[in-house]
Design goal:
homotetramer; alpha+beta; eight-stranded mixed beta sheet
């Protein structure tokens, strides 16, 4: 649903609320003429499909895991593939969900990811986040299950600073579970754990990666894996490791914001067979 | 051979014996009209062939190793490829064996796996098992040769709980051997070692993986490998590792029973060239 | 620009200056008739393009990193691809730069690598170097971030002797940065660090590899990676490691100078689809 | 050159000399009618070419390394590719050498491997060996450079028993070298080091693998790599490792002699595009 927002109301909103650039962008696109917005939505869903295929091609996702993107025309909705292996997702499989995890106008026969609450609750908690990846990345899970902190090994993974928190579902729920973020309460606890960070690990399960755009969330997921591999190699050497410090990481992260598109475009070309 | 079972006898059997769901299923399919049973058998053998190719594609099997499935029409028989590299198995290579490891109606020129006793003796000991994989998986053998216990690193490998026993053929036989499970006595000792578990390692040799269906045995074999890789990475860090505890694993295993089909279908598509 | 050099002036130059063989070669090619020199330039640029593709195929480069070659017709210029993923570089994307990092006759719309100063300042400092690779090689970065010295594990990586220095940009600049070699001053500091060696690591960033030809710089980059993998495996064993000593490495390096062409030709065939 | 051996002389030779089965076979084939022997030679050279391609496909060889086979028609000669990357070898590139490393009837323009003395001196020292592989296998070199002994992790690599000696060229020569086995004296020292074993490592260089047939030498090279990977993973865990003991290995090796053909045939199919 496209909210009716007058210029005045928009100005008031800008003045009255601390809005991140991403939310500004969301409101901006909400004001677009219908045709352009529909064109934007089609391109966005194509990017979401590409993101699924890229993350499989880059070995971040296997038969499991999911990617979503907030609807710029309605920030209370997000798009995600229906319950399907990421490698098989097409535009026809993409469903809109609300922030309670309910499907909107889904086709009959479609089933939905048990863990859509990961996405819904992060979108609720983080106005700056417009794209989310949940994966069972196998090079990252060892870090989720040990006290070792994942930290930036190089400038390209600077977004891991300042912190990569670890979500332990047993602590969140207060007892044993089947490890799935299967309802809003657990989703909220996970969102609380990730705080303002880009990545959170999930003990005995995997990770969640967030970003303001699809391109950047895919980039972050791929390079979180790369960082985990490098850090594991360094750790196995037994030698002290120097990581990027907080200032270096913050500065490098601004560069990543500028240059990540090159990797995204290259990966898109690859999965589209060019 | 299809046993003649009247409804009354079936009811008596159900009442008188503690039957697992799998055996019930076996008896059920034994009652099917011949055409449907033959259709089932054809599909089952296609799945067995696919399982061979998937396990090669997923690097669980190389030129060696084998997969079998119990015959639902006659639980005293099982199907397995003849002595051939798994990558080369076709439906025409599949042979029926009895629980002594004898081939039934095999074609002339066919030779048989030396270690068919692994399968026969596990089917004898485990009424709940209808599919068996024997592999020389190289990421798992290091765990077979060291005292380190393979334990579930994430929810997807929850079936490793409660235990992954290690079979040492030297202890079983009481002296040196060529490491092969080459007769019924050694097969029985291996079946005794695996107990009620899903996976047993074989010191200096490989592993055996069991399940109620082909799809699940392939899933378990692939994710036993994945777990071994992750656990090896965590171990090399020297840090204490948190695994799924018994309650978490039992709960997660119920989810695996529900969702493993997605991976199986994806892998089948891949090896069939789609 | 082709300098006008008479035979006499050439002889004087040879007599008066201590010229490395590479510079002699550069002067030599400067005297070639225009057609041959242009033919040489075309072949050189094709090799530069091939080098980009080989280094991606060999997993030394991903979406980032760059390769350059000094212009034999004008040693104050070097050729490099414009700001583009190495996998996508074609001859039309190759730009000539001067030693201040300025593009010469670049096409409109072309952007340039932020870190072209890595190449410019190394060409300035090293008359013997005619080809440079900058990569974010992920098996090498762990060595950049720990005190462990990269040393030759076998004869093929003998060029790592006598030393693989580590450049720490924080020390060079005297404070935090975004980790990029984004100006001539930082480039000079990196060139100073590499000294007369073939490879320098860059803490929290990657590496730079230099050589007198494209073929040899690609060879060195590929085998630096191979050496890093082998050394990491040896280090993880905890056992003492024997490396090539200085004399062995110097002798083996002469062989590498003779035989590296075989690998280069093989890799070129592979990326050209033969 | 086919030696003229009468039946009587053959009988005398058998009586007078302790001949291994392999030499008996060589003498036997020397007595074959010319056409059959030529047919055998053509098939042997095709297998030699396939061995090169398989070892590249299995990542044992890269642009470097070589495979040879003794000529069954003249055990004083062996066949090997000329100085060429193994991936590129065809039947037309195969040259016959004598035990001094001289080429016999080689084509003009052909150059020869600097290290052909590895092959010649092993054939001289080992009447039971008819095939030799020299590789720079990168998972094996860490074992060559540390005191850790390569030992059989499973039945398939039983041929590593009883011993995998390490050749150190510095000790053999009494001073620094370029690491190459570039003359008969060094070749003899390497042959002395390997003794009666199947594999010897070469410090700072690689390995040599020997066997009575091409199929078995390729099998041994591939599974030496596999064993090295498994053993490295076990070592990195820090836990005590149980290897096959000498009796187990000897018994398992008899099985390997029976079953290695299955892997060889599968690998041949793969490189021939089937």
């Amino acid at each position: 649903m496209k909210p009716a927002i007058t210029i005045g109301a928009f100005a008031f909103a800008l003045a009255a609320l601390p809005l991140s650039a991403a939310v500004s962008f969301a409101l901006f696109t909400a004001m677009l003429p219908p045709a352009a917005a529909q064109g934007n939505e089609k391109a966005l869903i194509e990017d979401l499909v590409a993101a699924n295929h890229i993350l499989v091609d880059q070995a971040v996702l296997d038969a499991y895991g999911h990617v979503s993107v907030r609807n710029p025309a309605n920030p209370q909705h997000f798009f995600m593939g229906r319950n399907l292996a990421p490698a098989l997702v097409t535009a026809a499989d993409v469903v809109a969900y609300d922030m309670d995890g309910n499907a909107i106008n889904a086709k009959p026969g479609f089933t939905h990811f048990l863990e859509r609450f990961i996405h819904a609750e992060i979108y609720n908690a983080r106005a700056d986040v417009n794209a989310v990846v949940h994966s069972h990345s196998m090079v990252v899970i060892p870090f989720a299950n040990t006290p070792i902190q994942l930290r930036p090994m190089f400038h390209v993974s600077s977004f891991l600073s300042p912190n990569v928190p670890v979500f332990d579902i047993r602590k969140a729920v207060g007892g044993p579970t089947n490890m799935l973020v299967g309802n809003a309460a657990i989703g909220k606890a996970l969102a609380e754990t990730i705080g303002q960070n880009s990545v959170a690990l999930m003990r005995g399960h995997g990770e969640v990666v967030v970003a303001p755009t699809i391109a950047l969330v895919v980039f972050r997921a791929v390079y979180t894996d790369a960082n985990a591999r490098m850090q594991a190699q360094a750790i196995a050497s037994g030698a002290p490791i120097v990581f990027l410090d907080a200032e270096e990481a913050a500065a490098a992260n601004k560069v990543v914001d500028q240059v990540h598109g090159r990797a995204w475009e290259l990966w898109k070309r690859k999965v589209s067979g060019q």
